[in-house]
Design brief:
The protein is α+β, with helices and mostly antiparallel strands. It has nine helices and eleven strands. The protein has a single domain, classed as Thiol Ester Dehydrase, Chain A, CATH 3.10.129. Helix content is 21%, strand content 28%. The chain has a nine-stranded antiparallel beta sheet with strand order 3-4-5-2-8-11-10-9-6.
Length: 386
């Protein structure tokens, strides 16, 4: 590998900072089945998001999208503004998401549009790929009434794919084989977690205090099938579901030829620009291409890790709660064969001017072996009695 092939050339990135960006926009409004498919793909069996009779008895009155669904209304996981500028032979991973939610819920029939901008970046040395860029981009979500729904600040990790292969951080990583007894134990843990929010039903989460532990949430073990199901739960992955507007360099960011989309070929066969079949996302569910970009085997989506956190918080808080802010850093991927655990603790309670309590919650995501996958804090608005 030549020195030029190993160089992280960021010279084209600066001209995109602070520039309003275009990108893909979904053509149609949110449909009820989009929400149901999202709950299925995120492995979140909360009937509030798929059972119309259960949802009708809730405070929301119908199936309403979970807050995690916001990213599903975007084309590109909210990460496209953080992937601007041409860096030759690059690939990218998700490094974290910070969310601000402003109040409006997303309901069937809503049509959400996005405004985007590259915020900033820095380059540092990592054990994974040597010189690595951490870039942040903002996506603002606005509904058809002009209401501000949410803002997402996504961190992209951009690096030279060949350098990651050479450094071989994951060369000793082996996929775990789970015994029947171990899987039975995991299923029992899942049932215990599901009961923690099903038992609350339509009630309010009251009497929360600092030091309270949230119930542990297990997800997995992850498989190529579960990662493919995640991908297909994003509405943007449906052929013909979006169109591009304005200026954006995401598709010309310097992907290696093997991970690039064939835009001309897609005019005849959309799979050529599908992402999962061919394009930057193919490594998630195709181990050969995972290794091409420095990963050991199939791996999950950063945006999904963020969704797992938001679902974890809102399942605990119940239908009367609302996440107002979360800031989660991603540090280790979800890999095939791994089991993910989410744990949380209430750090403190403060009160809004109207008297509603807001809980600050520390969230940590780990593998079954204890490796930290993600961590951060969130603020959840809780209900009051009456």
């Amino acid at each position: 590998m030549s020195d030029q092939e190993q160089t992280l050339d960021t010279s084209d990135v600066d001209r995109w900072i602070g520039v309003p960006l275009g990108g893909g926009q979904l053509k149609e409004p949110v449909a009820t089945n989009d929400i149901r498919r999202w709950a299925q793909g995120m492995q979140n069996p909360n009937p509030l998001y798929y059972d119309e009779e259960y949802a009708a008895d809730s405070v929301l009155g119908e199936i309403v999208a979970p807050q995690s669904f916001t990213v599903c209304t975007d084309v590109g996981h909210g990460a496209t503004p953080a992937i601007q500028g041409h860096i030759p032979n690059q690939h990218m991973l998700f490094g974290g998401d910070e969310w601000w939610f402003f109040g409006p819920r997303i309901r069937p029939g809503d049509h959400i549009r996005q405004e985007r901008m590259l915020f900033d970046y820095k380059v540092t040395q990592t054990k994974f790929a040597g010189p690595t860029m951490f870039s942040r981009g903002d996506t603002t979500y606005i509904n058809q009434r002009g209401e501000l729904v949410a803002k997402q600040r996504s961190t992209s990790i951009r690096y030279v794919a060949a350098k990651a292969r050479e450094m071989g951080l994951f060369k000793d990583s082996q996929e775990k084989e789970w015994s029947d007894e171990e899987l039975e134990k995991v299923e029992a843990e899942k049932m215990e977690y599901y009961a923690s929010f099903l038992d609350l039903e339509h009630g309010k989460r009251l009497f929360v205090k600092p030091g309270d532990a949230l119930p542990r949430r297990p997800i997995g073990p992850h498989t190529l099938l579960s990662f493919a199901t995640e991908w297909r739960s994003y509405t943007m992955t449906v052929w013909g579901s979006s169109r591009a507007y304005g200026r954006s360099s995401t598709n010309e960011s310097g992907w290696t030829p093997e991970m690039s989309q064939d835009r001309e070929g897609a005019k005849l066969d959309p799979s050529n620009a599908d992402g999962l079949y061919k394009g930057p996302s193919r490594g998630h569910a195709q181990p050969r291409w995972a290794k091409h970009i420095g990963m050991p085997r199939g791996y999950g989506y950063g945006a999904t890790m963020g969704a797992w956190v938001l679902d974890y918080l809102t399942n605990w808080g119940g239908e009367h709660c609302f996440v107002v802010h979360s800031d989660i850093k991603y540090r280790f991927p979800a890999l095939t064969g791994d089991l993910t655990y989410l744990d949380g603790e209430v750090l403190g309670i403060d009160y809004e001017d109207d008297g509603f309590p807001v809980a600050t919650i520390q969230v940590e995501m780990t593998t079954h072996e204890g490796a930290q996958m993600a961590a951060g804090e969130a603020r959840v608005r809780l209900p009051v009695e009456g």
